[in-house]
Specification:
histidine kinase; alpha+beta; binds magnesium ion; Heat Shock Protein 90; single chain; 13% strand; phosphoprotein; five-stranded mixed beta sheet
Length: 263
């Protein structure tokens, strides 16, 4: 009878201890899930913060570039167009001077003609810099072709350009981003890479267009963050974002650079 009682109280004790142990385990598990969830949320928030920071950097790069572009256009207009038109205006007023000889009228008229031609040439160059007419009228293939020809005629670099796809002129707004990306890549290859050969290839890629770019320049160390402080690359990234695409850039010291993106 006594042994049975002991057994019973033992069993009750075991049950109580087991319950307490389960409760403790449950409590620990709840705590574990609570803290790991908190950690995950914290990590997600940090990731979102980084994304917002990156978007802000891209936006500020776009704004700074826009302002610099405006400054450059204002300077070009002021230095090239306004100054020439001022002299044209002065010369035109001179024509009103009484008792001018035929020779004097001839000289002043020639001055006006020359200066007007220069002003026209300057305005054409400024407009060309803003939006190359070939790109606007004949599309990306002709625009890039002309850009490469201009580079080749400078004798600084040889640009090999190949296109195996067709560009619809209706997509010109999209293509302007591609053109600007290539302009910046070529600038960088010449300025930083000291490249002598550049290759550009457009091809079809599973219903999209693919652009592959490479140079034979000095390249750069991708891990060096100081090398990524310019506005050019940030602008390229924001243009790629406009194209709903992603860009893959690879470079190493003395290995040149390769860049690919779809659009
Ligand atoms: N093709 C390249 N060859 C070697 N280094 C390059 C090349 N492209 C970019 N870089 C390196 O990456 C850096 C960042 O380029 P990015 O175009 O962003 O800025 P930047 O050209 O210095 O200035 P910005 O474009 O604003 O005038 C460059 O300073 C250069 O060190
Ligand atoms: Mg640059």
């Amino acid at each position: 009878m006594k042994a049975e009682l002991i057994n019973e109280s033992d069993i009750i004790e075991i049950i109580i201890y087991s319950c307490v142990a389960f409760l403790l385990m449950g409590f620990v598990l709840i705590l574990f899930f609570y803290f790991s969830r908190k950690k995950i949320i914290q990590k997600e928030l940090e990731k979102k913060d980084l994304e917002i920071q990156y978007q802000k950097e891209l936006l500020s790069a776009v704004i700074i570039t826009q302002e610099e572009e405006r400054k450059r256009i204002a300077q070009d207009l002021h230095d090239d167009i306004s100054s020439q038109l001022n002299i044209v205006s002065l010369n035109s007023h001179l024509l009103n001077t009484p008792n001018l000889t035929k020779d004097e009228v001839g000289t002043i008229t020639e001055n006006i003609i020359n200066l007007t031609a220069k002003a026209l040439d300057s305005s054409r160059k400024i407009a060309h810099g803003l939006l190359p007419p070939v790109l606007d009228k004949f599309g990306l293939d002709a625009g890039v072709g002309e850009l490469c020809m201009e580079c080749n005629s400078s004798q600084v670099v040889t640009v090999n350009y190949e296109n195996t796809t067709f560009f619809d002129i209706k997509d010109n707004m999209k293509h302007l981003h591609v053109f600007r990306i290539l302009q910046e890549l070529i600038n960088n290859s010449i300025r930083h890479g000291k490249a002598t050969v550049i290759s550009i290839l457009f091809e079809d890629n599973y219903g999209l267009k693919k652009c592959s770019y490479s140079d034979n320049g000095i390249g750069f160390d991708m891990k060096n963050k100081d090398k990524q402080k310019g506005l050019g690359m940030k602008n390229i990234n924001s243009r790629v974002a406009f194209l709903n695409s992603t860009i893959v850039i690879n470079s190493a010291v003395n290995k040149g650079i390769t860049v690919t993106f779809n659009f």
